Automatic annotation (TrEMBL):
Name this polypeptide is given: Adenine DNA glycosylase
Domain HhH-GPD residue range list: 51-198
Family under the similarity heading: Belongs to the Nth/MutY family.
Cofactor binding note: Binds 1 [4Fe-4S] cluster.
Function description: Adenine glycosylase active on G-A mispairs. MutY also corrects error-prone DNA synthesis past GO lesions which are due to the oxidatively damaged form of guanine: 7,8-dihydro-8-oxoguanine (8-oxo-dGTP).
Pfam families in the record: EndIII_4Fe-2S, HHH, HhH-GPD, NUDIX_4
Enzyme class of the recorded protein, top EC level: hydrolase
EC number: 3.2.2.31
DNA sequence: GACGCGTGGAT
DNA sequence: TATCCAAGCGT
């Protein structure tokens, strides 16, 4: 590992690059605006950082726009109904983030605003080491070290750290702290992440375009693309299940709200079997079920899922064993796997009527 | 510290 | 097609 990297030289070179090449993002106060005295809104910084957790910039943009249009302030978000927020979050994934977002907004509103220290932020729901540091640095100009996957990769290469992740994470964080400047910590953090996202990329880093190439030990050794080393991941198993899509005469679909914790917690979904090697059928009511051909495939973080879909139309009077009929339900409020089930059901004869078959 | 937790784009 | 990966957090 190289040890002679100078904080001022590295942060200076990176900030000069950022002043010239910073991406324009909806939640970002760019270097020129910042220099002109524009102050970031902690609410927008926090909201964007939570949305960006393990989620790409391209995906977040539309959600950020919808959220800030509908709820322009943390007080407005705090006053929203849970189900409204969950529905607006639908499709973005990691739904615990949305539950924590609501809890955090209400705590902040009750406190009269966001805390402006690392520890104060860190104590809020859904705010961990990364988000606390990024909000402290970007919104409150505090010299905190922001460490995300980009920063870990950049630092691993700068210092040619060959120890595998995740074991090396604490070391990478210490090395990142060495580089964090006292001035412009927020721009520095965003510059590190921009660099990782656009230049110091995972597979094929563009070292020829890198403002830090002259400081980079991995570049000097010709091993930038090999770093950081990661320990191998275990392969994903495949689970199977059956989802039941029932439409009542009035068009209301039968849905249930999933338990508040765990997979898709708090989100609406179709009644179904367990998900496993050999699922047991579990229709939510007695009906003339039609098992559709094909399966819906979806991959979660730690397993593949193949769902068979059974559909039925039922009269107005029936009472389901699980879930409830929801007139006027918007399929856009479904998490993606459940929306795929809906799309698959709609491709069948669910709406054509099967009486004439 | 390891695991559970979504989704869509890149390779 | 399969795998990797992304501005992580909570338990």
């Amino acid at each position: 590992m190289r040890d002679g990297i100078d904080r001022e030289q590295v942060s200076g070179a990176l900030l000069r690059w950022y002043d010239r090449a910073a991406r324009v993002l909806p939640w970002r106060v760019g270097p020129a605006e910042r220099a002109a005295g524009v102050v970031p809104d902690p609410y927008r910084v926090w909201l964007s950082e939570v949305m960006l957790q393990q989620t790409t910039v391209a995906t977040v943009k539309a959600y950020f726009h919808r959220f800030t249009t509908r709820w322009p302030t943390v007080e407005a978000l705090a006053a929203a109904q849970d189900a409204e927020v969950m529905a607006e979050w639908a499709g973005l994934g990691y739904y615990a983030r949305a539950r924590n977002l609501i809890a955090c907004a209400r705590a902040v509103a009750a406190q009269g605003g966001f805390p402006d220290t690392l520890d104060g932020l860190r104590a809020l729901p859904g705010i961990g080491a990364y988000t606390a540091a990024s909000v402290a640095a970007i919104a409150f100009d505090r010299s905190e070290t922001v460490v995300d996957g980009n920063v870990e990769r950049v630092v691993a290469r700068l210092f040619a750290v060959r120890d595998p992740m995740p074991k090396s994470k604490p070391m990478l964080a210490r090395l990142a702290a060495r580089l964090t400047p006292l001035e412009r910590p927020g721009d520095f953090a965003q510059a590190m992440m921009d660099l990782g996202a656009t230049v110091c990329t995972p597979r094929t880093p563009r070292c020829d375009d890198c403002p830090l190439a002259g400081f980079c030990e991995a570049q000097a050794q010709g091993i930038a693309a090999e770093l950081p080393v990661k320990t191998a991941k275990t392969p994903k198993p495949t689970r199977r299940g059956i989802a039941y899509v029932v439409i009542r005469e009035d068009g209301a679909p039968l849905l249930e709200t999933r338990p508040p914790k765990g997979l898709l917690g708090g989100m609406p979904g179709w009644p179904g079997s367990d998900w496993g090697d050999d699922p047991t059928p579990a229709p939510p009511l007695a009906a003339d079920w039609a098992l559709l051909p094909g399966v819906v495939k979806h991959t979660f973080t730690h397993f593949h899922l193949e769902l068979s879909v059974a559909t039925a139309r039922v009269p107005q009077a029936v009472n389901p064993e699980t879930g409830d009929f929801r007139p006027g339900f918007d399929p856009g409020a479904l998490p993606t796997v459940m929306r795929k089930v809906w799309d698959h059901a709609a491709s069948g004869d669910l709406f054509a009527g099967r009486d004439g078959a």
